Amino acid sequence: MHTVAVLFARKTSIYKSISCCDVYDLERDALSFPGGIPVVCHPPCRSWGKLASLATRVRPGEKELAFYAVDQVRKNGGVLEHPKGSKLFDSLPCVGSIDKFGGFVLGVNQSWWGHSGLKPTLLYVCGVSRSSVQFPLSLNYPLKTVEMMSTAERERTPPAFAQWLVDLAKRCGGVR
Prior knowledge:
Layout: E1 4-9, E2 21-25, E3 39-41, H1 65-76, E4 78-83, E5 104-109, E6 120-126, H2 151-155, H3 159-171
Parallel strand pairs: 1-2, 1-3, 3-4
Antiparallel strand pairs: 4-6, 5-6
């Protein structure tokens, strides 16, 4: 039984190997998600990042998918992941604040879960208290800089991070 939906996953997503996940990639279309279970959202970020002006191959309507993802996190509980520096977070509560939906933003580094680079990331979470979120103790030091990584390597979600996000989303269910 699927207990978490993963929206906007890559075709080769690690989430497809996690049995409790109902994965929506480009082919399946996250906009067809009916709701009802918590979500892990990875909306496209190239229109939101520091280098958005250099983004190529942006599909029409792609930027707006992030707003859909925020709405799904608020309605179903769960977590949205985007790079640190994403302008999407300009419309979300600042770190340390809680919005009217009970949502809050946390900063993490994906190297804590085994990414070969630091990969600073922001998470928008709804459905649990901020104090209940626990992070791994990691002494991992990133081995590579962003400039040393391929695009695929930069974008890849470490398996341990994916599992942590799914476990967090499971705890966020039933917010409304």
